[in-house]
């Protein structure tokens, strides 16, 4: 099933929050601008989100229940797993919030005389079809219908993204100025940090107030459970995170621990790539942290080495038990160690009835995690420990050549300037959208 395009197309969804209604004393702003809400508030009545928030009218534009159903189907397909009733209910609320943001973005673009043509939308839709269905638009249409969504729903999402991107290029980007001094200062910092550890981190941030803290913490724990059960971190970050990085799947990029809040830095230091931790209480809410990768600043990464490998494998006959397979694997591994290098291994393999496959363009980082370091530690002609299963047989990798990567000289002046500009545009965009939400007239049905 081809669902990758759904993840790529998904917009960021706001994190779930508990609505406090009817407190006995009205919340009021203090002179500092902070709300003063009494302790022990009493809730009068209970909102039913399945009824009250089924549809919404945003500045006169209607979001229907069908709109929500179709977008929800896209996200459920992207997750590739079944969700419980409570999780689905919360996700439905997130979808509605996302559609509201999308509507506001389209409206603001229209108010700025920015119109996304149907031709532009269709072209983007066709590119998605080309990437996922070999340019077969009809096949993608049928797939969307089959999962309970529709081409119109995805095209509306594409229209919103195109409109917002165009608006930012016109109304925000021209006012973002990065000086040469700022870029040069950042380049100097990078050089000064050469050789220090750098972390690529994914974060899902859920904001919380003292009143919603318990509920948000519970939501965060449930998200962690879903992620550890196989859920996509990128998809969940897009759906739930309230950080500005939600639209890129929570990816903070490469950072040094000193750049992170102390709570996150402490947690990240103990992680190995692929590990997850959370929820972590941070000022203003909770964070879930995922370590995507780790490297040293401006140093060549051994995992970028290009390897020439030979894979030698044998199969077990039907009925082989575990003890027999273990003994045969040990004999096979010993024979490979005695093969005296890549020039002789083909003849040894033929005597054993083994198959040999050669690949001269294997990037070390593309190997499965447990094999990466084992292969990188090999000298020419040496073999990895045997691996496999009774069903798939046993195999070893022999190192026949290795081209180490060149030292990383770091980003160029132009690349770094572009990155800094993009970061500031994204931050300004979050403020822009916040103002649109604040001024919107929204009626719930």
What does this protein structure show overall?
InterPro entries: OMP_Chaperone_SurA, PPIase_dom_sf, PPIase_PpiC, SurA_N, Trigger_fact/SurA_dom_sf. Pfam families: Rotamase, SurA_N. It comes from Novosphingobium marinum. It is a single chain. Helix 4 (85-111) packs across helix 7 (151-171) and helix 5 crosses helix 7 (151-171). It is built from 15 helices and 13 strands. Mean pLDDT is 77; it is low at 1-33 and 46-54. It has 3 domains: 4-171, Porin chaperone SurA, peptide-binding domain (Triger factor/SurA peptide-binding fold, Orthogonal Bundle), CATH 1.10.4030; 197-296, Chitinase A, domain 3, CATH 3.10.50.40; 302-403, Chitinase A, domain 3 (Roll), CATH 3.10.50.40. The strands form 4 sheets. A 4-stranded antiparallel beta sheet has the order 6-5-8-7, sandwiched between helices. The chain has helices at residues 4-9, 49-52, 65-79, 85-111, 118-133, 137-146, 151-171, 180-192, 213-228, 233-240, 262-269, 322-337, 342-352, 369-376, 413-439; strands spanning 28-29, 35-36, 56-58, 61-63, 197-207, 251-255, 276-282, 285-296, 306-314, 355-363, 387-389, 393-403, 442-444. It has 445 residues and is of the alpha+beta class. The longest helix is centred in the first third of the chain and has 27 residues, at 85-111. The chain is globular. It is 46% helix and 18% strand.
Shape: globular
- Span from first to last CA? 36 Å
| Number of strand segments | 13
Class of the largest domain, according to the CATH hierarchy? Mainly Alpha
Q: Please name the CATH architecture of the largest domain.
A: Orthogonal Bundle
Order of strands, widest sheet: 6-5-8-7
Low-confidence stretches: 1-33, 46-54
Mean pLDDT: 77
DSSP helical segment count: 15
Task: Report the structural category.
Answer: alpha+beta
Number of domains: 3
CATH topology of the largest domain: Triger factor/SurA peptide-binding fold
Strand content: 15-25%
Summarize the amount of helix as a percent range.
40-55%
Largest sheet features: 4 strands, antiparallel
CATH superfamily of the largest domain: Porin chaperone SurA, peptide-binding domain
Rg from Cα: 27 Å
Order of helices and strands: HEEHEEHHHHHHEHHEHEEEHHEHEEHE
- How would you classify the quaternary structure? single chain
